[in-house]
């Protein structure tokens, strides 16, 4: 009797599992049928549409519609549907009192447009006369400086480090001057002649962090800049994502420690007599992407004896467009030149 009950229980379980399996298979078959039917219906609709287009094109005297034209027609049709749906959504939002943020914030957007270029004028202690001359000649100060930023998209700042004896008279004089002019970028590093390459690197890095500009320029504090010519030249290079512009040269490498321009790493440069091609240090410009590259890799990019050589070395292994622009040769002033040594 016990064996008979156990056998009947097993049979019942097998039947129950069989029914569940059959039910699942049936449901799967139904869903598959719906899917296939839907795809066939979509394909049929597409075929009808293509046949109509083929008839229309043929009727216009063309022999057939190409595959490219077919794809374009289908893409345009889908875009038209999406555009119609968006227009309906916008109309509904307008009825509910929503307005376009773009139209209401036009003036604010213009005020916050991206700067064309950020100019860093690298200066030193005891060079106030040079800075005043630059303010008077091309950079301006106060309202004039703000006007250049707003109307021309050109931001200019004097770049300087701190004294080795923090808080001494040198630091205080710069702080006092900055309170009056508000046109300094003061770096948290020692101001010294041998630190100029690191100073240039930090300018590019911090400027890229502070301003999202199209270009960044390094200028010496004894250089006159033609702002209008600079703006026109840089505008012509806006279509180049990674560009390095300047008066390109290959200066001599000096291996004698007693020489003014001694290069400690002289043995690394090819024939040990000349540097690779790089922009002259009086003034050069890099695009925003390169400034961001410097900002991200500031701790990895090494410097050499000169800031212009150092900058050139950072771009050697990158996909960068080098532009040898004669207008940036500051030592030879000519018509249409961008800079001139003073």
UniProtKB/TrEMBL annotation:
Pathway: Protein modification; protein glycosylation. It holds the Pfam family Galactosyl_T. Belongs to the glycosyltransferase 31 family. It is found in: Golgi apparatus membrane. Keywords: Glycosyltransferase, Golgi apparatus, Manganese, Membrane, Signal-anchor, Transferase, Transmembrane, Transmembrane helix. It is a single-pass type II membrane protein. GO terms for cellular component: Golgi membrane. Its cofactor is Mn(2+). It is an enzyme of class 2 (transferase). Its EC number is 2.4.1.-. PANTHER family: BETA-1,3-N-ACETYLGLUCOSAMINYLTRANSFERASE, HYDROXYPROLINE O-GALACTOSYLTRANSFERASE HPGT1. The chain crosses the membrane at residues 20-41. GO terms for molecular function: galactosyltransferase activity. The lineage of its organism: Eukaryota, Viridiplantae, Streptophyta, Embryophyta, Tracheophyta. The keyword Membrane applies. InterPro entries: Glyco_trans_31. The keyword NAD does not apply. This is Hexosyltransferase.
